[in-house]
Amino acid sequence: MFKVSEELQLKLKRLNRKLRETYPGELLHPQRIREHLSEIGEFVRIERFSDQELQDWAKDKSVVGVDGSVNSTKGIEMRTLSVFQALAKGTQGEEAWEADVYTPLIQDEWEAEGLLAREAQKRGARLSRLELKVTKKAIRDWKPHVVMMDGSLLHYHFDDADEWDKVAELAEESDVLLVGIAEEVGSRGLAKQLFPEHPAWSDRDLLYGLLDVGEAYEWSEWSPAGTKMWKMVFRSSYSPAPVGVDGLLLQKHERLSLLRLIYSLTPKQGRGIPYWLDIVDQEVRVTNPLVQTMVDQYIDPDLRHRLLSPKRSERVI
User: Are 232 and 255 in contact (CB under 8 A)?
Assistant: First the structure.
């Protein structure tokens, strides 16, 4: 049994009441929200591909999944070592890997690259660059029909717009479809449009449990001007929270076929992500034991203990 103070119990009860006030059930009624959404966007029913339909549509080419992972040693931010991996994996046995390491302990990197590079050193941006590298390699070398990327394509545009534009241009020239699948809908524009008096609400809050399994919703305002992308939300499994799906604007005519692909590859009992992306995620994941093993194997013991071993690791309880 956990030991919990009465004060903590009281504050949690107060928080629950405030959450109930902020998200009142009568305003979040599905039918009422659907009526609002029908006025500004479109609901679309999606069917799974049959095996023959999928084979014909894919033109006997592979479907590639792309994902990346990063993990760091434990400790304060300036005394960590981060390990990055990205993987593109095709359904016909293709694989491409990229990897990197980073630590703020190496001052030369900061001094050489300057102030502007400090933002670029953020883990997400560095990982995005690796994922774009393996995506580019997959498109050039394998000529797949589709590249599915774990997460929204929009974040690549924000992390490294120049490199993203090169990948998008290469995909269009090579007739390779690009699609991003985000397990969480992180936008707020839809909620802000319909319920401006509730600034805490997100689009996920509105859409949770709203769509039927196999149903998508499209709203033109989701994609910011200049990004050259389309976006939809889609409930591809029994999970009540839909996934976000986006792609290149020049490939928008294929968006319903891409949703059919996602639906066909997603377990109904899963969280809404195609099983192939889960396989890629499992293979590329940088776990805590992997980070520790790599550090133990390649970093000299005296450096490891001096620079990368936090005091908390010495706790006896």
Answer: yes
